[in-house]
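in:
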């Protein structure tokens, strides 16, 4: 009976400690909001200072305006948006690499928006910190005590892991998209060569291929055609394709089309040669990956199967010697 009472007392004490911890976190959050809302911390920005003098100017077209961000449930998104943007700016000032982020966003087929990416990193860090807090709660329940150093360390590790994880996901998305584009490139190049051989011009061949094919590379070619229709010449629009991607094969593809359009050289042969080069590069890449996989396959054989085999071979003799002794 005394053991049951002691256990109940311990559980009640742990529960009250968690209530006190939650109350402290809420109190700190409220104080942080109060301090952030003080007049000294609400300095007007340049837009706020210029807005009274620009009210009489005609409003820009709504077609050029960005869509409003989602407000979230109960308006919390609009309430927390300034703080998330401020934290994102702090993360960007610490990490840097804005040009690298823009480059990877373009490679991943996303609009170049560093501020949005930093805000996503802040949210990912918050999710990681909450995961670290939940892990600490499980440890506290299991050990029946509240380890403050573990709480602080796990929250910090979870936040940093969330920020780094969002950056890794962007890099992975860019790599996967480029791999899909490389897979589609030989077929698209041969279709362009067939269209050019049939008498189509460069623009007509691109339009026909974009109409008949679907994929990441086709979407990029559609964007090039849209830029060409908007007023840019075809070489400039294709150069934008090479700038948005980090693939040397596509860069050579664009250079070949630009040279063929500007100098009047045969375009079909250039496209066929480039498609063949990409297929050869893909074959070499597969061979290299196959060689790496063979090495990886040796790891379980050397470190798992071989020791077990040696043990089975030596164990009878060792046991017999032990019996002799």
């Amino acid at each position: 009976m005394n053991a049951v009472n002691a256990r109940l007392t311990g559980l009640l004490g742990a529960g009250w400690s968690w209530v006190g911890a939650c109350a402290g976190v809420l109190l700190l959050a409220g104080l942080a909001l109060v301090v952030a809302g003080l007049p000294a911390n609400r300095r007007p920005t340049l837009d706020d200072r210029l807005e009274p003098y620009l009210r009489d100017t005609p409003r820009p077209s709504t077609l050029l305006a960005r869509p409003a961000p989602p407000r979230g449930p109960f308006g919390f998104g609009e309430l927390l948006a300034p703080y998330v943007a401020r934290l994102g700016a702090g993360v960007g000032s610490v990490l840097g690499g804005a040009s690298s982020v823009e480059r990877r966003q373009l490679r991943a087929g996303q609009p170049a928006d560093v501020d949005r990416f930093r805000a996503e990193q802040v949210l990912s860090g918050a999710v990681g910190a909450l995961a670290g807090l939940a892990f600490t709660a499980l440890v506290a329940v299991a050990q029946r005590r509240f380890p403050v150093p573990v709480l602080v360390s796990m929250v910090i590790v979870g936040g940093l892991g969330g920020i780094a994880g969002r950056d890794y996901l962007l890099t992975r998305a860019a790599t996967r998209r480029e791999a899909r584009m490389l897979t589609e490139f030989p077929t698209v190049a041969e279709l362009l060569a067939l269209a050019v051989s049939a008498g189509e011009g460069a623009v007509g061949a691109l339009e026909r291929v974009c109409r008949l094919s679907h994929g990441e590379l086709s979407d990029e070619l559609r964007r090039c055609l849209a830029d060409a229709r908007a007023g840019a010449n075809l070489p400039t629009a294709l150069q934008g394709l090479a700038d948005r991607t980090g693939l040397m094969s596509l860069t050579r593809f664009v250079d070949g089309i630009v040279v063929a359009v500007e100098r009047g050289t045969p375009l079909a042969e250039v496209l066929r040669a480039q498609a063949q080069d990409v297929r050869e590069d893909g074959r070499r890449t597969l061979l290299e990956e196959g060689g790496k996989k063979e090495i990886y396959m040796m790891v379980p054989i050397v470190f798992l199967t071989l020791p077990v085999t040696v043990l089975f071979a030596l164990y009878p003799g060792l046991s017999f010697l032990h019996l002799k002794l």
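note: The CA atoms of residues 74 and 185 lie 47 Å apart.
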